[in-house]
Amino acid sequence: MSLLSPSFDMPAMGAYAYDWALVDVETSGLVARRDRILSVAVITIGPDGEQTGEFSTLLDPGCDPGPVEVHGLTAERLRGAPTFDQVAGRIGAMLQDRVLVAHNAQFDYDFLAHEFARARMWLPVSQRLCTLALNRQVDPPTDDMKLGTLAAHYGVPQQRAHDASDDTRVLAGILRASLREAARLDLPLPLVACPPRTESQFTPKPPKTPCAYRNPGRMVPGGPLRQGMKIAITGETAHARTELVGRAVSAGLNLMSSVSRHTSVLVTNEPASGSAKARRALAEGVPVIDEPTFLRLLADVRPGTAHETAAVKGAPAAEPEAERAGTVEPVPTASSAAPAPEAAALPAASPGVPVPAPRRPKPSAGAADKPLAGRRVLVLGGAHADAVAARTRVVELGGSAAVNLSASVTDVVLLPEGEGDRRMKRITALGLPVHDPHWLASPAVADRTAVALRPWEPHVMPRGGVIDLPMPHGGPAPEWYVTAGWAPQSDCGIDVVAFLLDEDEQVTFDEDFIFYGAPESPAGTVRLLTGGPAEQTIALDLASLPPATRKIVVAAAVDGVATFGTVGAIQIGAAPGSSGAPLARATLDAATTERTMLLAEIYRRGPVWRLRAIGQGYDHGLDALARGYGVTIAD
């Protein structure tokens, strides 16, 4: 088997030639820390494109095989198969010193990492490549990025979907075609470094039980405690700390690990101790009581307002302000969020039917005011402010502003010094139309006839734009993937993070801060996924979020001394499912000196979840942003 097609000669491979290990696993569920691998297939391929090895086997997971209707692996079929630890050595030898390749590679990687940890072995993978992330960069004209859809697009026959052996063979064909497209577009491969991990290092802690009640605010001096109050305890106590916490939680109070302006009361027998919590309580004016008073008040905690009552029976929540960011004051820069327009409605799905992608309307005379509808325009060169103005104009004309060169780019606008961009050589070779800035003044509608029509177009959101996320009628909300992408950076890194916030725009506890060091919420409802050095995704299981979570803020931070002004535009896209086509897309590029940026927020509006594109930047670092949302950050 050869990874190379006759039209893909070896000298053209260059940076695309690696020792590959193509992997596919079928599993008993979707949670790597809990579920098990039922079957695994590995194909190894050398830098010359020739297959060097192949292995596949069913596995006895020692548990219920899960959704048999999906993978077809019954307990009877798996009976007598080896356990993972019996084949781990052989699989590890095939993975050693090779780049692991999979479709949605983090899924396969995490399952393998857990299985190797259970077998008390290291997963010998130092790099991985996700063909899903690679194709998001290539951006082929397909309805979605599912394995079967890409196989059909690239002409790779698929015989048995959800069969590990056949899926790996199909993956080989998709990798071949994707590498050919990446080479044609001169795209860097989105390789992800995989440092050694063991199960204890990345298994999330058991989730803290969310408080069922809204925070009623601070305790009135001499008044009672009310359910939902945020309580912090510091210093030595006569009773065991676990006893105090247990009694408080049982009474409906919300025990916090830190003090913020939203703390209702601090419990301490040493108010002058100088502890961090005591100092913060003094600075914020938080009431302080001692342990005997706290125990006395615990005997008569007054009823609170349940989150469910507020979300279902109460009036719809007020529209959140786009520029609001917890306790952090906005920096008065060009990146201040624009006023939010009324939410755009995307189509809802019928029960059991995937959420459809919005279809691009056919050109008509009435579309003269949106002459760039359906176009994807890449702006190169120019001063920062000029490039921002050009991309803003593209969106005003109905187009989508691209961040990187891809198969979907239809036009290039060349600002001063844009000729020196390294991508110009490839743009010229591809024959893409190149325009000067005056083209944006009045692009002719007739120009659209030169563009190959794509089967779908995402809804283009301006900064501050809002859409309702479509959900199946009568069914649970799908898992949504908010992906941020940017031009590859050589001198800095970018971290995407998420904050799960309550009605007060505060985290309920520190674990509601999702970042590279804690990439998954304790309950697994929000996850950080890395698709490459220029792409990260926040996955959201909206149906499983606790009622206390009213908003998820997705942000990004630049490490070191770099700013978003030097990074350039950040593109965000929202898609239902990991392989779904984006239903909405926004390009956020108004930053100058900012080091952190709010990219988007997903929030409840009555029974509906909404997505807002923000683009609000701050000059301070990620630690200050996290503190503003109530996260405890060590000084």
**Spatial shape:** globular
End-to-end CA span: 56 Å
Helix count, DSSP H or I runs of 4 or more residues: 16
What strand order characterises the main sheet?
A: 11-17-27-26-23-19-20
The first-level CATH class of the largest domain is given as: Alpha Beta
> If you average the pLDDT, what whole number results?
82
Fourth-tier CATH superfamily name of the largest domain: Ribonuclease H-like superfamily/Ribonuclease H
CATH hierarchy: architecture of the largest domain: 2-Layer Sandwich
- Strand runs, count: 27
Q: What would your notes on this structure say?
A:
There is one protein chain. Helix content is 22%, strand content 22%. With 635 residues, the protein is of the alpha/beta class. The chain folds into four domains: 10-202, 2-Layer Sandwich (Nucleotidyltransferase, domain 5), CATH 3.30.420; 230-305, 3-Layer(aba) Sandwich (Rossmann fold); 344-356 and 458-628, Lipoxygenase-1 (Sandwich); 365-450, 3-Layer(aba) Sandwich (Rossmann fold). The strands form five sheets. The chain has a seven-stranded mixed sheet with strand order 11-17-27-26-23-19-20. A six-stranded mixed sheet has the order 3-2-1-4-5-6, sandwiched between helices. Strand 26 (596-605) and strand 27 form a beta hairpin. Helix 5 runs parallel beside helix 7 (164-185) and helix 6 crosses helix 7 (164-185). The chain is globular, with a radius of gyration of 26 Å. It starts with 19 loop residues before the first strand and ends in a 7-residue tail after the last helix. The model is unreliable at 1-12, 198-205, 309-341 and 345-366 (pLDDT under 50).
